[in-house]
């Protein structure tokens, strides 16, 4: 539904509210009031899940060890930001390399308005620097993808339904914390959504069933974001797959450490030369606030 269609619907519903028999059906009246509030919130840019928690995954893209190191830098940036916001963080899965970098890592963030604050961090992030992994000290460009989805656990939403026949569940030994007993049994769970190929891996809960439930929750969030991206792409005439390619040309933000220092958001043109404040101290609120105003 476009903004104009939502505004027209609000006018229609508000006209219904002033009719003499509006309150004769109390349940219907309350449903109308709720729908008006939801439509107004959407127009204002406050989505259905904005006030809830979120799940963030950072994937390394082109760039090998450099990209995986960049993912670790982004993780540190976000952790510092979460600490400033008093958000709670729980790690769900990590795939780490031998240099302290990450091929991918998934975390759950709890707090007030987390999803609404973080959802526009989704996209490709680009790093330009002298590679610490190159003996020739050459400048290197690497990419990481950040994906932020709503946490469906506490939403009570039935908006995303995943039929049992559409998923494949695989089990393996957990590599995460939980004690000796956890690591002796196959508690880690990987859930694959067969129609789309989307896969979710969770290993930090203490039991196989808890990991399975969490993985399905995350899968629902990923399917919701996929549907939301496709809706936005249809409305704007964009080709949706472009947003998921972790490569040159699709970045939402660049972090340049050489030959000059600058962090620039390509959607809002907000930039700063204080790269250390961004990457080391998590000072990303100016970018988030600017994106909200678009």
TrEMBL record:
Domain Prokaryotic-type class I peptide chain release factors: 173-189
UniProt GO cellular component terms: cytoplasm
Gene3D superfamilies, sorted: 3.30.160.20, 3.30.70.1660, Release factor
PROSITE patterns according to UniProt: RF_PROK_I
Keywords, in A-Z order: Methylation
Short name of one Pfam family: RF-1
Highest taxon, organism lineage: Bacteria
Lipid metabolism is among the record's keywords: no
Keyword Protein biosynthesis carried by entry: no
Single GO molecular function: translation release factor activity
InterPro entries in alphabetical order: PCRF (IPR005139), Pep_chain_release_fac_I (IPR000352), Pep_chain_release_fac_I_sf (IPR045853)
Family: Belongs to the prokaryotic/mitochondrial release factor family.
Name recorded for this polypeptide: Peptide chain release factor 2
């Amino acid at each position: 539904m476009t903004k104009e269609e939502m505004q027209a619907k609000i006018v229609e519903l508000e006209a219904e509210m002033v009719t003499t028999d509006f309150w004769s059906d109390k349940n219907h009246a309350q449903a109308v009031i709720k729908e008006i509030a939801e439509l107004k919130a959407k127009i204002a840019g406050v989505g259905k899940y904005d006030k809830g928690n979120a799940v963030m995954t950072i994937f390394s893209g082109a760039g090998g060890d450099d990209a995986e190191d960049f993912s670790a830098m982004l993780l540190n940036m976000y952790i510092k930001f979460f600490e400033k916001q008093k958000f709670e963080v729980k790690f769900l899965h990590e795939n780490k390399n031998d240099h302290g970098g990450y091929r991918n890592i998934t975390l759950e963030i709890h707090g007030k308005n987390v999803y609404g604050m973080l959802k526009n961090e989704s996209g490709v992030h680009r790093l330009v620097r002298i590679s610490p992994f190159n003996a020739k000290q050459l400048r290197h460009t690497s990419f990481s993808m950040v994906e932020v989805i709503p946490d469906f656990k506490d939403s009570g939403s039935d908006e995303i339904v995943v039929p049992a026949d559409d998923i494949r569940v695989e089990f393996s030994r957990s590599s995460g914390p939980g004690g000796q007993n956890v690591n002796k049994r196959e508690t880690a769970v990987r859930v694959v959504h067969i129609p789309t190929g989307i896969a979710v891996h969770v290993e930090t809960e203490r039991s196989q069933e808890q990991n399975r439930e969490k993985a399905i929750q995350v899968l629902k969030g990923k399917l919701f974001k996929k549907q939301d991206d496709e809706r936005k792409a249809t409305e704007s005439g964009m080709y949706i797959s472009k947003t998921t390619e972790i490569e040159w040309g699709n970045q939402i933000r660049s972090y340049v450490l050489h030959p000059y220092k600058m962090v620039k958001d390509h959607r809002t043109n907000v930039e700063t030369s204080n790269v250390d404040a961004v990457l080391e101290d998590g000072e990303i609120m100016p970018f988030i606030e600017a994106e909200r105003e678009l």
